[in-house]
Design goal:
CATH class of the largest domain: Alpha Beta
Structural class: alpha/beta
CATH superfamily of the largest domain: Type I PLP-dependent aspartate aminotransferase-like (Major domain)
CATH topology of the largest domain: Aspartate Aminotransferase, domain 2
Radius of gyration: 22 Å
Distance between the termini: 45 Å
Number of strands: 15
Number of helices: 15
Oligomer: single chain
Strand order of the largest sheet: 2-8-7-6-5-3-4
Bound molecules: pyridoxal-5'-phosphate
Number of domains: 2
Order of helices and strands: HHEHHEHEHEHEHEHEEHEEHHEEHEEHEH
């Protein structure tokens, strides 16, 4: 098994040179971008700056080729059947909204949507808008951040139009057994539409849409070394075909008259307007970078950090600290949300930053109902890891927390 050489990897990121003492533990919010990704975007601006699918001149053709090449890359990265199943969006939020709006016309009044209690607001609010309260069903999450399979089986019926669930919780780190859940869901209701929020999974664990057998998968470039403002909506061809486009305009049409318009095929039917071309090119370069390191290596590195950090936090702070989410690291990604009995998460985060250059996130992490109604806390502090983090980062983090104790005691 390969291991990750973090010393070497850090050299790929200018930000570590600019800020050598930085301990960045907030990749769950957004990841750092290697120089090679930034360069790939610069190159577009310097060498083939033109719009896609429009000009007949060489520059525009080159831009189009580069853009479409990334579609193939994404297709291979998540093992989709066909390039046309990859739609570029501005991020996970946009991708989920595309699906939710796109299904609106096909919804019957008693159709239900099933989500879990740990969803990010992006995978909650679009569904809230689609159906009334009664028809939005919420699956409980246990104190260790898990789903009860019996409850799940009971909640999926012929009325369940959509199952929308994150593969990995951005708060609890739980890796939900998506393949198994989809299997059960389709057995109970062969017509069900499954929407997987992959914002926290695609960057960290091998994701194979054919193996999962999901209908839709959404993710964001900025959480996987790519630029901000770019994301992906994967959908099975038959399912994407049926979505009503949320946006209409240029680039998504076959023919237009003043009275009527005929839309073109997917994926372009769902990509109205000029695209974020440099951003998509950056995503392509980010995928190359990640594949070069190896997604399995990334996962293994994160498990090691997770185990190291969990043990060290418990050893050092004992009963003072409460860590949310699964205990088994095999069921958990590199995310640790925690609470100290006596200190407020915002105080913790700001002291960690001002005394030790440590970046962690404090708040409800865009999962307010999970905090208020399941964990019964107003806020948590979250440390999240990526492949460029080290055991040394965690040592500094734990030392920083001791400093917090000293100051706040
Ligand atoms: C970050 C995140 C989102 C939202 O992604 P954006 O890039 O902000 O659109 C949705 N779901 C989960 C689980 C996330 O972590």
């Amino acid at each position: 098994m390969n291991t990750i050489n973090t010393e070497k990897i850090k050299k790929d990121f200018q930000i570590f040179k600019n800020k050598p003492n930085l301990v960045y533990l907030d990749s769950g919010a957004t990841s750092f971008t290697p120089d090679i990704v930034v360069k790939s975007m610069d190159e577009y601006y310097y060498k083939c700056r033109a719009n896609t699918s429009r000009g007949v001149y060489e520059l525009s053709e080159k831009a189009t080729q580069k853009y479409e090449k990334v579609r193939r890359k994404v297709k291979n990265f998540i093992n989709a059947n066909d390039e046309s199943e990859i739609v570029f969006t501005s991020g996970t939020t946009a991708s989920i909204n595309l699906v939710a709006f796109g299904l609106k016309d096909t919804l019957k009044h008693d159709d239900e949507i099933l989500i879990t209690a740990s969803e990010h607001h992006a995978n909650l609010i679009p569904w809230q808008r689609l159906v009334n309260n009664e028809n939005l069903k919420v699956l409980n999450i246990s104190s260790t951040g898990e789903i009860d399979l019996d409850e799940f089986k009971n909640k999926i019926s012929k009325k369940t139009k959509v199952l929308a669930i994150a593969h990995v919780s951005n708060v609890l780190g739980t890796i939900y057994p998506i393949k198994e859940l989809i299997k059960i869901a389709k057995k109970n209701n062969p017509q069900i539409i499954t929407v997987i929020d992959g914002a926290q999974s695609v960057p960290h664990i091998k994701t194979d849409v054919l193996d999962l057998d999901c209908d839709f998968l959404t993710f964001s470039a900025h959480k996987m070394c790519g630029p901000t403002g770019v994301g992906v909506l994967y959908g099975k061809k038959t399912k994407l075909d049926k979505l009503t486009p949320l946006f209409t305009g240029g680039d998504m049409i076959e023919e237009v008259t003043f009275k009527n318009s005929i839309f073109t095929e997917i994926p372009h039917r769902l990509e109205a307007g000029s695209a974020n071309i440099s951003g998509v090119i950056g995503l392509g370069s980010a995928i190359d970078y990640i594949e070069n390191i190896g997604i399995e290596n990334i996962r293994n590195h994160e498990i090691k950090l997770l185990e190291y950090a969990t043990n060290k936090l418990k050893e050092t702070f004992g009963d003072e600290i409460e860590i949310f989410g699964p205990i088994d690291t095999k069921k958990r990604s590199g995310v640790i949300s925690f609470k100290f009995k006596s200190y407020h998460p915002h105080d913790i985060a700001s002291i960690l930053d001002s005394y030790s250059n440590i970046c962690v996130r404090a708040g409800n992490h865009c999962a307010m109902p999970l905090h208020n109604e399941v964990l019964h806390v107003l806020a948590t502090t979250r440390a999240s890891f990526y492949f460029y983090n080290t055991k040394k980062d965690i040592d500094i983090f734990v030392k920083g927390l001791k400093k917090v104790e000293q100051i706040l005691k």
